[in-house]
Amino acid sequence: MPRKQSPAPRFAYKGDRLKPLRAFCQVARLGSVSRAAETLFVSQPAVTLQLQALERDLGVRLLERSGRRLLPTREGEALYALARPLVEGLDGLPAAFHDQLRGLDGGELRIAAGTSTILHLLPPIVDAYRRAQPEVRLSLDNVTGAGGLDLLRSDAVDLAVGSMLEVPSDLDYAPVYRFDPMLIAPPDHPLARKPALELEDLSPYGLILPPRRLTTYRLVDVVFHQHRVPYTVAMEVGGWEVIKQYVAMGMGISIVTAICLGEADRERLAARSLARWFPQRSYGVVVRKGKYLSPQARAFVELIKPDLFTRRDYYDSGHSER
Q: Fewer beta carbons below 10 Å: N end or C end of the chain?
């Protein structure tokens, strides 16, 4: 027995729902069939036929006359609220599409990062990105810790690059690079020349650390307490660059992450690895969960990979044994 064919649609306009919905939205907005026809560049009878077909299909009255204006009925108001964004979205699709294409080669990218990350980790990545994406306007927001996360949560930046020990539930963190913890001291300091360094050797000397609210201070405190080793904080000061300067001036010693040590520090600082007692610090990309990454942001993230960051660690050449 041959299969029974489905009946044809009752109204031909169903093949193109956009036209009657566009006609209805224009009449609801302008209150006039004639003005809607002028806006759509069609005849008034064409608009009237589209409205009638739409009302028959939905089985409700969508418009009613009030004086010289046509106003949506209760059902018409509900349809207008649903249809207007669809119609406007489809009508604006060509322009939005071309804007998106232009955005592949241009646009803006904003990144939050701390001073050490901007100075020591990002330069080769930014250089590669600028060469690959010369049309993109790149902004680096120099912020620390919670400040960068606040910018991320408010969509003021596209992503953040830095170090995280604890990851909030609303964020995603992908660690990429890892750096050893380092003791830094003036080159003539007793700890710079001591053959076998123990954690207890740090006790007599005052430490210069970042502020107590930051992760580094808390980590130092935890490690010393775990090993039952007393320690003294001589000074709290923000920023690795300031800490390095104060250590070089002989104001104390410090425990920093190897990321902040470069060629320029070799003559003024001695560095010793503390990897026996302190964990490595990871650095990577932080994004808000569920956030759509723009093409510009995705292109930057693709460059954040270990083989791009080729700077040798500060202590590789034996500088720590001087």
A: N
Residues 148 and 297 reside in one and the same domain: yes
H/E stretch holding 216: helix 215-226
Q: Which of 311, 262, 294, 260 is nearest to 111 (CA)?
A: 294
Confidence of residue 11 (pLDDT cuts 50, 70, 90): very low
Q: Are residues 217 and 76 in the same domain?
A: no
Long-range contacts of 71-77 (CB under 8 A, 24+ apart): 71/28, 71/31, 72/28, 76/24, 76/28
DSSP-assigned beta bridge partners for residue 183: 255, 272
Residues 168 and 298 in one domain: yes
For the stretch 162-218, pLDDT in tens is: 888 888 888 899 999 999 999 999 999 999 989 889 999 999 999 999 988 888 888
61-74: average pLDDT: 93
Contact present, 277 and 201 (Cβ < 8 Å): no
- Tally the domains of the chain: 3
Coil, helix or strand at residue 217: helix
Domain membership of residue 113 as a residue range:
107-178+282-308
pTM (2 decimals)? 0.58
For the residues of 252-321, what is the DSSP string, one character each?
-BEEEEGGG--GGGTTT-EEEE-TTTS--EEEEEEEETTPPPPHHHHHHHHH--GGG--PPPTTTTSGGG
> Among 95, 103, 97, which Cα is nearest to 136's?
103
Is 161's pLDDT higher than 60? Answer: yes
Assigned domain for 255 exists: yes
Q: How far apart are CA 84 and CA 21, in angstroms?
A: 8
CATH number at residue 132: 3.40.190.10
129: nearest Cα among 299, 316, 15: 299
Shared domain check, 296 and 152? yes
